[in-house]
Amino acid sequence: MLSFPNAKINIGLNITEKRPDGYHNLETVFYPIGLCDVLEVQPSEACDDYSFASSGIAIDGDPEQNLIVKAYRLLQQDFPLPPIDISLVKHIPFGAGLGGGSADAAFMLKMLNEMAELGLSDEKLEDYAVQLGADCPVFIKNKPVFATGIGNVFSETDLSLAGYFLVLVKPDIHVSTPEAYSLVVPRKPEASLPELIKLPVEQWKDLVVNDFEKSVFARYPQIAEIKESLYSAGALYASMSGSGSSVYGLFASEPEQLPAFENCFITGGELR
Q1: 94 near 101, Cβ under 8 Å?
Q2: CATH number for the segment(s) 2-156
Q3: Which of 18, 25, 189, 249 would staple 238 via disulfide (CB 3.0–4.6 Å)?
Q4: Catalytic residue among 37, 90, 110, 135
Q5: CB 254, CB 233: distance < 8 Å
Q6: Catalytic residue check, 211
Q7: Domain coordinates of the chain in residue numbers?
Q8: What integer pLDDT is reported at residue 272 of this predicted model?
Q9: Poorest-confidence range of 16-20, 167-171, 200-204?
Q10: 8 is catalytic
């Protein structure tokens, strides 16, 4: 069984308050994009548990700490899952604010649900997914949503960026999510994000904001420079995604020329 876990971008990200449990409440729009990993799962005849192989972007560490394996272990607690062989081709960069690991885990839950004929609803899969990561549930239904809570309470949005051209740039910088949160002062937004995204995209600049940018840009000026370079290249709107370090620009059409983003991962394509 083959699937293509896709990345997401954040459109607006307001950190509204710190919770008693140490987490933060936020408001954001999650929007799926076309950058994908390749995840294959097959019944195994060679092992009695699982095997894990990966290629593409190197994955370090114990496979047991990988969210894909954690998804397998999570369902294994409640269901008699068969032994499996897992193969991952990693294209979505780490530490980018793109949700690549969460996407892999969510797609793994969906594949196991189908392969083992568990009959779990999307809502039940979301309950499992949130145990793996705050943004993991968004990849179950995998459509644009307005998210609140810790990023796991979803409301429908009719936002469509179909036809816009996305340019995504990730510098060789890792932004620690806990560090990013520690530098943000929570605040109530001045305007409603669901209302702001109803405005034309070319009006979003300075209105649809990512609260992480101020502190992250101060610590990593290169990320701020990428955002300004995208605007200089003609982007209608540009923003950091999540807590970084990736920055995206939305263009009316494919830009004729982009700056030379040295030592950066760059991808792009028309949104759907």
Answers
A1: yes
A2: 3.30.230.10
A3: 249
A4: 135
A5: no
A6: no
A7: 2-156, 165-270
A8: 87
A9: 16-20
A10: yes
